[in-house]
Write a structure and sequence with these properties.
The protein is an alpha+beta fold. The chain has six helices and five strands. It has a three-stranded mixed sheet. Strands 3-4 form a two-stranded antiparallel sheet. Helix 3 packs across helix 4. It is globular.
């Protein structure tokens, strides 16, 4: 377990040691707003899946595993990152707030970070070229999510006879 005060201390120490200029931190957990309230280090912004008094809701149920694979907020964050890393943090927050239906996405911390683009924190998610282990290359550039899917399909196709590889992507 990571306690809120320990996380707050870690961010404060990181800020004191100048380990980051600006930091954008996402928390996906039930009652995540209650943790974010303790994070007061300078130049830090936090976007949470839920406020301090509500649960974050599961999403993407797998009937074979009889379990949820992810959370509504996490799926929206990943989708947003894949779509447009040039969005401003405030635009991303507003989109997450609008598209996350079952909990209240919250923003805490440094408001000046809202004016920065997501790419400041996650880099530019430009097209990439994927090379598979048999030296087969994909000639056309593809997005990172498609690369992950292609890798999983490649390994599933190359599995030993009688061995079934099953993977689910959260799209």
């Amino acid at each position: 377990d990571i306690l809120a005060d320990e996380l707050a201390k870690s961010f404060s120490v990181a800020a004191e040691r100048n380990l980051y200029k600006k930091c954008l931190f996402f928390i996906e957990a039930c009652y995540s707003g209650s943790v974010a309230q303790f994070l007061t280090a300078p130049n830090l912004a936090i976007i949470t899946a839920a406020n301090e008094s509500e649960q974050s809701n599961p999403d993407n149920y797998d009937i074979i595993l009889d379990n949820y694979l992810s959370n509504e907020f996490s799926n929206r964050v990943i989708k947003l990152f894949d779509q447009d890393s040039s969005l401003k943090v405030e635009e991303a927050y507003n989109t997450l707030k609008k598209e996350t239906k079952l909990s209240h996405v919250m923003y805490y911390g440094d408001d000046s970070i809202k004016n920065l683009s997501l790419s400041t924190f996650i880099g530019k998610l430009d097209n990439i070229t994927l090379e598979l282990s048999n030296n087969e290359s994909v000639i056309e550039p593809i997005q990172p999510r498609a690369a992950t899917e292609k890798i999983l399909r490649f390994h599933a196709e190359k599995s030993l006879a009688g061995v079934r590889t099953r993977a689910r992507l959260q799209l």
